[in-house]
Structure formats: C-alpha cells, structure tokens
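seq as requested:
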Amino acid sequence: MEALSGTERLQFERDAIAPYVGKLGIRSIFNFLWYFFGWGLTAYLVATDVLSIWLGVPLAVFFLQAGYMPMHEAVHNTLSAGRPRLRWIDRGVGSITGWLLCESFAAHRITHLKHHTHANEQDADPDLLNAKGTPFDLVQRAILGFVLYPLGPVFGLIPPLRRALPPSVAARLAAMARLRGPDAVTAGGKVALSHLLVLVAASVLGFAQLVWVLWYIPVWIGRLWLSLVFGWLPHHPHSETGRYRDTRIFTFPGSTFLIRGHDHHLLHHLFPVVPHYRLKSLWRDMSSHLVAQGARIEGRAAQLLKS
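struct tokens:
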C-alpha cells in the first residue's frame, strides 16, 4: 500500500474507524463497576477479618489500577459515545475513579489532552516529567509522589514550608505546575485537599488501615504500574514527535491483555474516539496503511508483519 496524503488520507482513516465509533461504551461502564465493587468488597472482607491483609493489599492494587482505563475513556467521552445528553456518564465515572486514584478528573482531562496535542514536546507535554527516563526513575517519582501528594495542600496553605523542600524537588514541582497550567493546578489542589482531610479524619476515627493500607498505599503502587505501561512503554524513548512517530505499536505475547489494548497506543493517539478494547481490531484493518505512513511498529507486531 502506498502512503496517502491530504484529503485522501483523512478520508481513508475516517472510513477505517467508522465501524469502531458511535456506540455507547457499555464495556467501559462495566469495567468501572467491576473494579469499584471489587475494591469495595476487598476492603470489607479485610475489615471483617474474612480476608488476610496480605492478600487484601495486592487485590486492592489490582482493582484500583484497573480503574484508570474507564477514567481514561471518560476523558475522551467514549462512554457516552460523544452524545451531549449523556456526558454525565463520562463525568461521573471519571470523577469517581479519579478521586479514588488520587487524581482530579478535571485536571487529568486538561493534562491528558495537552499530552495528546504535544506528545514528546519537551516544553509542552505534561507527561514527560512523569514518564520519560528509566523504570527506576519512575519508581523514584512514585515514591516522591506518595510522600508529597498529601502535603500539597499544606504547602498551599503555608507557603513558607516550601523552603524545606530540596531545590531539585521544588524545581520539579514548579515545572509540573507550569506544564499542567493554572486551571489543572487549581482543580487538582481542591481534590488533593479532600484527600488530605479524608486521610486525617479516617485515621483519627479509627479507620487508618482502610485509608492507608487498603487505599492510599495501593493507589500509589498502582500509579507506578500505570506510569510504566501507559506512560513510559508506549512512548519510550520519548524522542520523536509527529503524527505517526510520537508513540508506537509495540506488542509482545499477552500485551493486549496486560496493557488493555494500549500496546496499540499509536492508534489511540491517532483516533482517541476509538475505545481501547477495539484498538487491536482496528490494527488488523490499518496495519498496511500505518506501515506506508512510516509509523513506529515494534516488538512482535513488527516481526509478524515481516513473516
């Protein structure tokens, strides 16, 4: 297949994705329900001594990290299929899941759409500060986030306390605020304050195990995993820009299940209105087109194309 350009390319791609868009995201709504109730049931069983805390923590990590996918889909309005009168579904699912993941849905929507617009652009992509580097860098950042996140509202209320931060950390926080923008910072600050209040109040009232061991700690373990498979892996080494080069198709045995379709992350960037669970099927329809366009296709997907 020859490379297409201009309106011919746009029409081809529009026709290719047509069968994959326009339907309500029932599967994403189900994904929201099973992770939400799974985590709630896990917390209940641990609290009533039916389930060991040693089993409860990994289960909590599993369920909570699974919540990112419906929240991510909500950012792109695929639950409502873009229907204005159903946007409350996107906002509801996104807001509940965002809160549980120590994230403001409003802030995440702003920063994620900036990422789509400016992927891998050094001074414009908010994801670079979290996802670029080595996996060990991501571990360090997750630990830093775990410690500093609940302190954010305190620094906001008492600015002189910021002087206690190491200069490198203060510079990183300033860079994050600049890349995220004032609207995202404000929205995120309000949600972070609510988290701090819940952590303090629940600890005082005797629910420390629930809020720390079965929620806050698992959330940040889950966030580390998410930063690895959704931020680092699809874009590594974060050095190229351009419509077909800023991310990639990168598959390996079991990758579609493990990364929930985002082993075909390039297709998500090209067509964010296509739900994640349809990306692999879309890849089968468009692989020759993407090859012709010079897309980044790596791993097992590249090997299969050569065979």
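The longest helix spans residues 208-235.
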